Structure formats: C-alpha cells, structure tokens
Prior knowledge:
Layout: E1 15-18, E2 21-29, E3 40-46, E4 52-67, E5 74-90, E6 96-104, H1 107-111, E7 125-126, E8 149-154, E9 165-179, E10 185-200, E11 208-217, E12 220-228, E13 237-245, E14 250-258, E15 262-270, E16 276-284, E17 305-311, E18 318-325, E19 332-340, E20 343-350, H2 360-364, E21 373-380, E22 383-390, H3 392-395, E23 403-404, E24 413-414, H4 419-427, E25 437-440, E26 443-449, E27 454-461, E28 467-474, E29 479-485, E30 492-504, E31 507-516, E32 521-522, E33 526-528, E34 533-536, E35 541-545, E36 550-557, E37 566-573
Parallel strand pairs: 7-10
Antiparallel strand pairs: 1-2, 2-37, 3-4, 4-5, 5-6, 8-9, 9-10, 11-12, 12-13, 13-14, 15-16, 16-17, 17-18, 19-20, 20-21, 21-22, 23-24, 25-26, 26-27, 27-28, 29-30, 30-31, 31-32, 31-33, 31-34, 34-36, 35-36, 36-37
Amino acid sequence: MKFYFTAIFALLAGVAFAQNYDVKTYIFDLTPHKLDKGWRNFGGYVSPNGNYIIKYGQSGCNSSASSGFKIGSTVYQLNGTSYSFKELNFDKDFNFIDLKSKYFSNTPEALTYQNNLFGETFNPLPKNIFTDANLAVGFKAITSDFIGRRIVSTSPNMSLKVNYKICSAIVFSEVLGGINKQGSVYCGERASFGKIDCMKAAEIKGQVWAFLNSIEYPSGGVIAAATGGVVQETSKLNVSVKRYDSLLTELNSTMLKFDYYPVLQGFLVKNDKGYNDFVYIAQQSKNLSSPYLKEYTTLGKEYDKAELILLDGKTLEVKKRENFTMPYSFWIKIRIVQKESNNFYLIGTCATNKETKLSYSDLISAYPPVMDNFQMLKFSNNEIKWIKGYDKKGLAPVVSNILEIDPKGKPAKEVIITSDKIEGTTVDVNLKVYHDFKVYHDKIFINGQAGKKSHYLAVIDNNTGELTSYFTKGTDMPAKSDVVPVKNDLNKFYWTVYDYSRYDTKAGELFISTLDLKANKGSDFKLLGEKEWAVSYENPMVLNDINEDAFVLQGRLTTKKAKDSDAVLIKIKK
Length: 574
C-alpha cells in the first residue's frame, strides 16, 4: 500500500533567528494515514543514513469472544494489550520518504521495540497484597527487561532470626479490564509481581541467619545474610552472599567479613565481559537489626565510613573491596547511573552531618527521611575516583545569575539567587535528581525541579566531582528540561526548559538559554513560539542530531487554526 502526505509541511515553514537560534517549524496532517485519533508520539531517532525517524504508537485491547453457557451470552477472554507502531521516515528537511508499520500482540513483545512503555524505571505492584507485598522487589525500581522473567527475592523483614524465605517470583504485565456500560470490552496493564515458590533459608540447629539485602535480576537473584554458627566465629561478623537461579538452585556463594554490623545496598553493574557484576555499599547500622547476633559483633560508631564491594557476577569472587570516607552520613536510597562498562556513578540523598545514623528500617520505609543534601561516588577502572557531597551552603558560591523573560512578555529581570533561596531549592532534591542525569564532555548534568517554583541544573566536573556551576530558572510547576551539547564547543550547551503552567498539562512554553561553562555564565532565557506554538508534555525532545548540531521538539499550535490532526515538529539548529 502506498502512502502520500497531503500538504506536507506546506502550512507553515517559518524561520526565526533569536540569539543564534535557527528555528524552523514544520506541520503535517496526520489524517490521511489515520494517525490523528488515538495515536501519540513516541519520540524518534536519527537513522544510520542520517534520516529522521518519528515514531507514533497506539495501544489496543487484545481480546477474544466465545459463546457463553446461556443462549445468546458471550464470554470475553482478555489477552492483554496490543500495540501498533508507525515509523515515519523523513530527510533532514522533513521531506517525507516512506512509512513502516509494526504490530505487537502483547506488552512483552512490544517492549523489545519500545522499552519505556512503563517508563525508564518503575515500581512493580504485588498481584496479591496478602501474599506478595512483602517481597523486597516491591520496594525497588526496576526496568522493562524484568517483564516476563523470573527473579529471586525475599522478605525485607529484619526481625526474623532465621527461616526467612527465599522466593522465586514472576514480574509480569498484569492484564486489567472488563466491559463498560455500552457493552464494549476495555483492558489495560500494569507492572506486577507474584510469588511462584518459596523455600526456607538453609539452617542447621544453632545457626543464625539475618537477611541484609537482595539484588534481583532477570532469571535470578543474590541474597546476603548476616550469619552466626555457620563458619568459625571470630571478632568479625560473617555475611553470606549466595546466588540463585530462577528455580531457587544455589549456583555459588562467598563469605564476607565485617568489623561492624553493615547496612547493605546492592546494585547490578555491567562489565566488559557481557554480563552483570554486583556492587554493595556497606554502611554502619545505628542499631543491631538482629538481637541474635550481638555476641558476634560490636556496634560501629563511625557513621561517615563506608565500603564498596564489587563481586564477579558469575563466580562471586571479590574483584574490589575499598573503604572510603563519606562527606556526610546516612546515605540512603542510592541509585546507580552507568554510562559504560566498569564505569558507574552512585548518587543519593544523605544527612546534613556525619553523626546521623542509618538503620535498615530507613531503607525499606514507605516514608524515608527527607534530607537536604546528596552524595555522589564515581567508580571507574576498578577504583573509586571520588566521593563528593553537595549541600545547600556549598551551592552558594557557584550559583550563576541567569536573566529570564517574564512569561507575559515583560522586560527581562535578573534573578538573584541567595543562600536562603538555595536552601529552598535543595530541600526538594530527593530522588528527582535521577530523572535526568547526563554526562557530556567530562561534565555531569543533574536536572530537576527545585522547590515549588524553580527548575535547577547542577553541573559537576566528571574528573574531580566538584560542583562547578548551578543554574536556576523560575517557573510555575510543573516543568521539565533538557540539556543539549554544542558539537564544536566543549564548553557550550543549550538548556531548554518547558514550563507547563500557562496552557495546560498537554503543552508548555519553551524557554532556551545558552550556557557557557568556561565563563560560568548563562544567557538570558528566550521564549520561543509564544504566539504560534508550544511544546508537548509527552516526549518534548524527539531527537538530537549531534552531527548537524540540531535537535527536534514535538509541539502543538496555539493559534485559532490549530487542529488536533496537525503534527508539529520544531527543529532548532544550534
């Protein structure tokens, strides 16, 4: 079947030059290809030959019907959500080339093509609140490659002496749905997990096993437990680490010794051998989680001391064990960001001083303590490169004043950031900093909402961990933003902020600033498309063409001539 675009890009092809921003707006009608109803933009990418591929997708209900037990009755079987995708192929000037279709009958199949259907990370929900809710995986953010796979997990209940259960579970896309009042079948899905089989931790009379941590991964898991009476006791605490396959078969194990009772947080890390290793961050507990282990260990009191332990993902051999001192203590809810093999970052919120103590209940609590500061550790080439802490007082000397344009078009006003305002911006850091973490040209960019009415961008030197720049943009919530590098200048970047307070939650104003990190300055924010278009809430950044120094945004028209069937793409050449 042959496809044609009617009036493609003919409605508007305006060019605006503002502060060296070459802005071109393209519009095309989705109606001829029946993409105008129920389809949404799933972003895009630059193909190997340099063309622009824009993806549209639509979900449906995969169901079947059969005759019921009564005459004239119908029984519906909900098989899950189906997905249809269209790839629109354009050249760099958005001249249409062709269209390709893809269909997936269920979510696991669709995830092989579009892996963020549930988001980049998400928390699965227990299928049965009474039998599944206490599995540790329910307290963690996972990725789409877990869907349809068995894992090994356990209960995070620290009060058990022994006999805690090691369980196999399935993470799956749970089908939800029914029949509405009009008699139409509807369905949806959510990420869930449920137990398959459980077994008690191995125990001989006189042994003590106290659960410390679990690392779940597709087709298996690793369980760490503090032990007593298992191996010859010394003044050190023995911690058993065991790796299981999805059928709960023990594959291998190792024993780690500690001078203190450790609070463990564990992560998967990619190595250059093509499989995952395991890394633990161990901190000292403020109390003994198990009273049954008092005779084997003493309570540590150096709460700013920690260890990084790297284990081989197949043999559990200790590849690296390194002590380090934290700028602060109580490093909680750590998340991992990995860019390439054997090179990763651990980042999370932490306490304001070195005396605050950590306990296991803080790790698994549904309402963890709120802390102002955060710490980051860089591990590269089998060693810790740096561990840095960032607090509200430390931000003050590096804040850069940025000029912003009032949304209503009033003259630009200088935004003076003082230390008391910085205190307000860092309080809301928490886990939101992980939503946008990028590394460009040996610089780390952390993007997030700062307090209730501003957006921030922290710039960290990748080689030293020093916070070199801190930019802020006043907005009314909600807001999102992106950082785009300039190809031929390693010190210049574009910061695009999308403010969704003016129109509605479907579209927002685009503000753009040029950042010069060598001079540690940002230009005044320029409001683009004010009278003609706005950026979309979903996937505002469609693609980044680094070779042409251009990026493409998805938008919508704000004029009276706007139609829902119009697809709007804004190309900004840097």
